[in-house]
Every structure is written in structure tokens, then in C-alpha cells.
Amino acid sequence: MIPTYWEHEIVQVKAHHKPERFDVVVLHPPDAQTELYLKRVIGLPGEQIDYQNGRLLVNGAVIFDKFAEQTEDFSWSDSYKQVIPEGYYFVLGDNRSISKDSRIFGLVSEKQILGIVQEGNTKK
């Protein structure tokens, strides 16, 4: 999540009910259940996500994402056959060129999300 968060940075995490778009969450990735990742929620249940020419498209509508220009083109239909199911999320790291995220390990279930990072309250 560099430059937003640095390795070994202490963050405050609050419990979650339903993450919102652009919340940073702490999660266990589907392919490494003992690890903890910080990722940004991009896609919500019922949506499909595309990145084209440095823009985030949610169900075809352009949504501002401050990291979109750093994101390689991504076509939802190349990886998924239907919209994000209820109880699942599409997450990306802020350092998009090297992030291991939903583009690699797939959607994250709500059960894998431990909490939402309380932004603005970080300490080094």
C-alpha cells in the first residue's frame, strides 16, 4: 500500500459491517489465509469493474479514483462472468503496478475482511 501506508506502520482498525468504496481494509487473502494484507475496496456487490485509459469504470460509469492513472487496463469480462456477488468485494493495493490483489487472487469475501483502517489516525 506504499505510498499510503508503509511496511510496519501501525494503523488503527475499526470493526466493519459493510465496507464502502475506497475504504482501506485489513484482510486475509483467499490464497494465504494466515497473512494479513491492507487493500482498498474498489468494487462492491452487484458491480463490475473496468479500468480503461487511466479511468475507473463501475458498471460503465466513470468514478474518480486517485490511483486510476497508475492502474493497468483491466476488463471485468476477461476475468469474471457475472457481477460481484453479495458478500464479496474487489480490492486493489495503492501501488497498483506491483500489488497482489483481486486481479491475482480474486474476490474477497466479507468474512475475510477483519476491519476497516481508520484513516488519518496512523502513527509511525
From TrEMBL:
Membrane topology label: Single-pass type II membrane protein
Protein's cellular compartments: Cell membrane; Membrane
Native source organism of the sequence: Candidatus Enterococcus ferrettii
Catalytic activity: Cleavage of hydrophobic, N-terminal signal or leader sequences from secreted and periplasmic proteins
Record family assignment: Belongs to the peptidase S26 family.
InterPro entries from the UniProt entry: LexA/Signal_pep-like_sf, Pept_S26A_signal_pept_1, Pept_S26A_signal_pept_1_CS, Pept_S26A_signal_pept_1_Lys-AS, Peptidase_S26
Domain Peptidase S26: 1-118
Any Pfam family hit: Peptidase_S26
Protein name (database record): Signal peptidase I
EC number(s) per entry: 3.4.21.89
Swiss-Prot/TrEMBL keywords: Hydrolase, Protease
